[in-house]
Amino acid sequence: MKAWSGRFDKTTDALTDALNASISFDSRMYEEDITGSIAHAGMLGAQGIIEQEEADKIIECLKEILEDIKAGKVEFTEENEDIHMNIEAILTERIGDTGKRLHTARSRNDQVALDIRLYLKKEIAAIRESAISLLETIVKKAEGGKDVIMPAYTHLQRAQPTTFAHYMMAYANMLRRDITRLEDCLERMDEMPLGSGALTSTTYPIDRRRVAAELGFARITENSIDGVSDRDFALELMSDLSIMMMHLSRFSEEIVLWCSWEFKFVELDDAFATGSSIMPQKKNPDIAELVRGKTGRVYGSLVTLLTVMKALPLAYNKDMQEDKEPVFDAVDTVRACLPVFTAMLDTMTLLPENMRAAAGKGFINATDCADYLVKKGMPFRDAYKIVGMLVNYCIKNNKTLEALTIEEYNAMSDVFSSDVYDYINLENCVNSRIAEGGPSQKSVEAQIASMKAFLNDRK
Question: In angstroms, rounded to a whole number, what is the distance separating the alpha carbons of residues 412 and 108?
Fold first, then answer.
């Protein structure tokens, strides 16, 4: 018999039970549900709402149930709908009417709001740690590539020279933002909704702050209607995870390109690549491709919950049961992607000669050549045109800017002299970009130091 069956003359149809039940997916919150119930029972006893002896008995039995679940000795049933009612049914079965007193001064509405916050607080902490590990790996790769010259791209066309370290620190900055977004989300999520009741709190003299402190929350929710109807914290988390996966997807695309024969900037470790069932020469970057693909899955979870919540009146609606599956799937996906992506990156081998050879083509020092003329007193637009003409000449004559003779330079402008060759040297092009944030070794070392300080603050 269902806990809420008193109002009804008939039992629910089996199809209703199947659609209504959530135990198949919310059972993963069993520990959070029991932890919240233990804190609630302790508060009920301390406040004299139930006898202290009853509270102690409930707490002792809940701890036993938790151990039995962990040991695989408990089987949940669809008849009891969800994790909350399943645990309450087991409790009542074991200690009788005393178990029925646990639900005093609370509703499943504030109970589930509590459980999912407790669960996601734990998951955010785990994702944050994985993201920090990835950031550490990126910084380590950057430190090993400070002298590795490579082309940087716009429109996927070779644009200007940079270093592998400078490139890596771009992704480091993305991931640092991801980590701080998770931290911000966790800070806003750190509110305890239990005590909101179904939507208008309770007539019992509960102590919400005691429960919040015991459960490790920084504060309580301030409005009982908002306490049970808010899922902003879940939406914010999935938005944060979507942005993080977008960053991983961009990084994955780079790696897919870089390990192709057309680029061959890197070589993936065999442990993080796969082969073809028909083409024996193939070494496929499947990990990067899967991370790229799973990004859409996380986006889908965000859109799912946004759509569920978009027109719901206050306060709780059964639609909100649809929050858990997309949230759980997004969390599971990110938790699966981060460690394997980190390991793939950590074991990836750089091919500096190929990077340098690519940088030597495509006229990526053309801007520097124009800057050379500007520093000799020529207006930039004039310099730009002259260098464009030089590039056109090189293309027609199968040359590079470095290979032109000084006579060929002077044919375009007599401003050129022999010092132009030093100015367009790729290493000099990189290290002359002294602005903060640029690719010069000094600048990159400052970026790495800043990122290490960020990481040290989180140890």
Answer: 80
Q: Which of 373, 365, 375 is nearest to 431 (CA)?
A: 365
DSSP type of residue 78: G
CATH number of this structure's domain 109-143+161-201+219-356: 1.20.200.10
CATH code assigned to 5-104: 1.10.275.10
The residue count for the chain: 459
The upper half-sphere exposure of residue 63, i.e. CA atoms within 13 Å in the direction of its Cβ, equals 10
- Average pLDDT rounded to a whole number, residues 431-450: 96
Residue 123: CA atoms inside 13 Å, Cβ hemisphere, count?
Answer: 26
From the list 133, 155, 252, 260, the catalytic residue is 155
Residue extents of the structural domains in the chain:
5-104, 109-143+161-201+219-356, 358-456
Q: Which of 459, 251, 451 is nearest to 337 (CA)?
A: 251
pLDDT per residue over 177-204, tens digit each? 999 999 999 999 999 999 999 999 999 9
Burial of 78 (C-beta count, 10 Å sphere; 0-12/13-18/19+) = middle
Mean pLDDT, residues 60-79: 97
User: How far apart are alpha carbons 53 and 232 in whole angstroms?
Assistant: 39
Please give the Cα distance from 178 to 243 (Å, whole number).
Answer: 7
- Topology (CATH level 3) of domain 358-456: Ribonucleotide Reductase Protein R1; domain 1 (1.10.40)
The neighbouring-strand residues paired with 266 are 350
Q: Is 276 a catalytic residue?
A: yes
Confidence at 18, pLDDT banded by 50, 70, 90 = confident
Q: Let me know if 450 is a catalytic residue.
A: no
Q: Running DSSP on this structure, what letter comes out for residue 284? A: B
Task: Report residue 68 CA to chain centroid gap.
Answer: 33
Among 248, 150, 180, 172, smallest CA distance to 446 is for: 172
pLDDT of residue 49: 98
CA distance 423 to 432: 9
Q: How far apart are CA 55 and CA 108, in angstroms?
A: 19
Q: Residue 4: pLDDT above 70? A: no
User: Which H/E stretch holds residue 172?
Assistant: helix 164-189
Catalytic annotation, pick one of 5, 24, 260, 276: 276
